[in-house]
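Slide 14.
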Amino acid sequence: MSHLVAALGLLLLGGCAGTGLRSASDAAAGDAAATTVADIQVAVGTRAWRGWPSALSRFVTPVHVSLVNRSLAPVRLRHDDFALVRAEGRRLAAVLPQEVRGVVYDRPPAALPSAGFSLGGEADPVEPDWVLGGPTWGASADPVGRVGEQFMLPSPDVLNHALREGVLEPSQTASGFLYFERGPAHADRVEFTARLVDARTGATLGRAVIPVTLP
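Slide 15: predicted structure.
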């Protein structure tokens, strides 16, 4: 009897295993979709961000991207090759992780170093924050600004979870987050586009287009 229960459990798990990604045509029904172009699988998820800050979508649109290279060509990975395209044709470019900018007031989890500082009553602060900081914004520049501790983006999570630029060799996989420019709040339906380029020759192997729904 125990063998029968175990077998049924395995069947149930097997039936659920294929439901994590939908095809591109089903993207409107959920937040994850995948397509394959020139033997390169591209999968995206628009609600996958679990890092800090949790409200990263106030500043950029984080999209998780996974690529599986089943072709014979090395594929170039460069942020310029990815975009979100709105219905009227406007292109929202990917922002380099180190160029993500913003100020948050939620304290980071204990695992992250606290590199914030307190605001005084005088001039706007210019002290750098985090490791790759730069001048922060003054409290008046942020709609939820308040006196207290503030933290400058990019946070360690933004940097560590980003999709790395480089070359995706045949039979290899790559995954990580791309951070796109924010569009208007009402523009929730867009197309994720990826230009797939041969890293050796610069020739375009194909173009993946995946309709997605933004949170």
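Speaker note: The chain has two domains: 22-99+158-213, 101-153.
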